[in-house]
Design a protein that fits this description.
alpha/beta; 25 helices; globular; OB fold (Dihydrolipoamide Acetyltransferase, E2P); binds magnesium ion; 18% strand; binds adenosine-5'-diphosphate
Length: 702
């Protein structure tokens, strides 16, 4: 990768060819150099690692008589004639005829009239696509076109041409020339951090060779091999970072917590239900881990409502029974409070000393709690991120459960694991996450899956609502359900409206429903701009059944649990992500009543339709998670793209899942066999630490 250790003395010296400013490279110059900066390309090595995203295959440059119908091919010719035909309905058909050694071949484009202007008679072009015979002539429908400059010969081009991400002022041909020249003159200087043994195992070319074949491939195979090398290098380095992190936690010491039959029975007696098979399996994983003298590092994946809290409670109470503290951290105050109420109720009548720690607590109360946490008299502590502030000193932390909701990163997770304080850690995600992300973002954790739901759960019936008439029926249905004693949520994307009749606004819908469709019912409004006491009052009224309908923003998303609520209406549903909608829907399958979810959306974009339709077709969160990853790409799911913390440079964990798995096996093996600690791997170690020490909180010594 372009990064090399900073202490390399040759880095800044002028005779370091890779560190040379791009300006001085052949075919670049000061003007292009300034443009390249927009692509973060400043030095030769950065240009060399400006990796093509795909290639155009011109290796099949055919003569006209060689053409075959329906096969991807390319031909070269000179523009002889152009025309635009106006068809019915305002559509156009643009044609460009090439003279290819006396044979006339036509390219056609529907509704792209600008194609006419793009070419002049006499221009030399390559058409690429799948031709067909039309009226005795070859025709390419919507071909891709490469124009040749005056001094360019078609057979110079004939070959595999890389395609690059570009920026304004730099065209594909120009970029190709720069990268090609740089690859030919400088690629051989690129050091290879992968030792030969690793390259052999993974069947990879040398890095210098790979870079050359990416910019100047002579065959598709060569390009593929180069690409595989770049992707695998990206992934292997990342997986090595994760594996190092894993090894680091394995070397920490934790209390060995054995769960006796007596303790087991005592914990189970607290639950008002029989655990599901999935919960039992997860608890078994947990019990096995807790017995070890090294910290557990486990991810609990389950669908919404599968009962993760019971598994968490089991772990926490096992710690408490062994004389250690149990800690539960949630991402929001609403959720922390909810957990607190659940556990407090579960433990009614028990001697376990328990407390809730939130950010905005009165100072005196907070001081008292911190003291009791520090001296160990508090056994079970529940809270928000207020728990990982420096002022919090735990006494003997045995088990930490992190209800993660994708919001805490690896670094926050590790706040629980310092030298003095290494509890067993259980991470729980709100909804299932796609396998590809599990292997990246949570790649250092062991995984337990709960695939079943508690018995008697009704599957929520979900419908997509597209018009006013349908929406009126929804409100009528809400009135009927409330008459039988049920309650409803109505969720809007925003708090305030931007116009009088803004259907995205919770405040406006609340006012509208109160005046109109739901005038006879008791309504309440909840959103994040209300202060905490107000919010709690609203939630208490809804929980007690005093309010029939709660109009809100997504503040109710996390963890809210009102079994009597059976209806979820989501306004402008296309504005929410799949996982978020699934999670919202999870709020209404908590009791034994049939739940109904209405996704109101006028949007007809294919993406929105696909998402909303998927929700009407399945309630399986694992399946929805995979679809979500496919539709949105992994970075967006975890909010990593915005935060700039995408750990991978070239690879995409969804598209390259197979390579991801391969890299994971290789990385773990290198760490487990100790090879990674050998002299041979010192370069790769340096590269991995440079990239990931900060992100993963790794000790610089590896
Ligand atoms: P989540 O996995 O979404 O956090 P919860 O732990 O909040 O789910 O559980 C959802 C609901 O299911 C709670 O009301 C809980 O009491 C109930 N529940 C959990 N496990 C069982 C079980 N084995 N049998 C019946 N109900 C259960
Ligand atoms: Mg939960």
């Amino acid at each position: 990768m372009p990064e090399r250790p900073r202490d390399n003395p040759s880095e800044d010296s002028p005779d370091d060819p890779l560190g040379m400013p791009v300006q001085f490279l052949k075919g670049v110059g000061p003007i292009k150099a300034r443009l390249l900066e927009k692509l973060d390309i400043r030095t030769a090595v950065e240009l060399l690692f400006h990796i093509p995203t795909s290639v155009d295959d011109y290796s099949q440059l055919c003569t006209a008589p060689e053409l075959q119908a329906g096969v991807e091919q390319a031909v070269f010719g000179t523009v002889a004639e152009r025309d635009v035909r106006h068809l019915r309905g305002g559509r156009t058909l643009t044609g460009v005829v090439l003279n290819c050694d006396g044979h006339f071949i036509r390219g056609v484009w529907f509704n792209q009239p600008w194609m006419y202007k793009r070419f002049q008679e006499g221009d030399r072009l390559i058409f690429r696509g799948k031709p067909a015979r039309r009226s005795g002539r070859w025709e390419f429908n919507n071909p891709s076109v490469t124009p040749l400059h005056e001094d360019e010969q078609p057979d110079q081009l004939a070959g595999i041409l890389p395609r690059y991400p570009l920026t304004e002022g730099i065209r594909m041909e120009g970029m190709r020339k720069m990268t090609h020249a740089a690859a030919m003159s400088l690629a051989h200087f690129i050091p290879d951090p992968f030792p030969k043994a690793l390259r052999t195992t993974l069947q990879l070319p040398e890095l210098a060779v790979a870079v050359r074949s990416l910019h100047a491939p002579t065959s598709l195979e060569e390009w593929e091999a180069g690409r595989r090398r770049i992707l695998l290098q990206d992934l292997v380095e990342f997986q090595l970072g994760l594996a190092l992190r894993r090894r680091m936690t394995e070397r920490l010491e934790s209390p060995e917590i054995a769960v006796s039959a007596r303790v087991d029975a005592r914990i189970r007696r607290l639950f008002p239900f029989r655990l599901t098979a999935g919960q039992e399996d997860a608890i078994q994983d947990l019990v096995r881990d807790l017995r070890q003298p090294h910290p557990m590092h486990r991810l609990l994946q389950a669908d919404v409502g599968a009962g993760k809290t019971a598994v968490a409670a089991y772990g926490l109470l096992a710690a408490v029974a062994a004389g250690h503290q149990g800690i539960l951290m949630a991402p929001t105050e609403v959720l922390a409070t909810q957990h607190w109420e659940t556990l407090d109720e579960l433990l009614a009548g028990s001697r376990v000393r328990r407390g809730l720690l939130l950010g905005g607590m009165p100072a005196a109360h907070r001081r008292k709690m911190l003291a009791e946490i520090a001296d160990g008299s508090m056994n079970l502590i529940i809270g928000t991120q207020a728990l990982i502030q420096d002022s919090v000193r735990f006494h003997q932390a045995g088990v930490a459960v992190i209800d993660e909701q994708h919001r805490f990163g690896v670094r926050q997770r590790s706040r629980f694991s310092t030298a003095e304080f290494s509890p067993h850690v259980l991470v729980m995600t709100a909804t299932p996450i796609p396998r590809s992300l599990c292997l990246t973002q949570f790649g250092d954790l062991d995984v337990s899956l709960i695939r079943d739901l508690p018995p008697g759960r009704q599957k929520v019936i979900t419908s997509r609502i597209t018009g006013k008439a349908e929406e009126d029926q929804v409100w009528q249905f809400v009135r009927q359900q409330v008459a039988t004693g049920r309650q409803a949520y109505v969720v809007c994307p925003r708090v305030e409206g931007q116009s009088e009749e803004d259907s995205a606004s919770a405040e406006q819908l609340y006012a509208q429903l109160r005046r109109g469709e739901l005038a006879e019912l008791k309504l309440d409004l909840l959103h994040g701009q209300m202060d905490r006491d107000q919010r709690h009052q609203v939630m208490d009224r809804f929980r007690s059944g005093e309010t029939n309908v709660l109009v809100s923003t997504t503040v109710i998303e996390v963890g809210v649990n009102v079994p009597n609520a059976t209806i979820m209406v989501v306004r402008q549903a296309e504005r929410f992500g799949l996982a978020q909608l699934h999670q919202l829907r999870g709020r209404i399958c908590r009791g034994n009543f049939q739940g109904y979810c209405f996704l109101v959306s006028e949007s007809e974009t294919p993406d929105a339709v696909r998402r909303l339709t998927a929700l009407t077709e399945t309630t399986d969160g694992f399946q929805l998670a995979e679809l979500d990853a496919e539709l949105r790409g992994p970075g967006d799911i975890l909010g990593l793209r915005q935060s700039g913390a995408m750990p991978l440079k070239y690879a995409d964990p969804v598209k390259h899942l197979d390579l991801l798995k391969e890299s994971r096996v290789a990385a773990r093996q290198l760490i487990d066999d100790g090879d990674f600690d050998s002299e041979e791997y010192s370069d790769l170690r340096a590269v991995v630490l440079l990239r990931f020490a900060r992100l993963f909180d790794l000790p610089q010594a590896g």
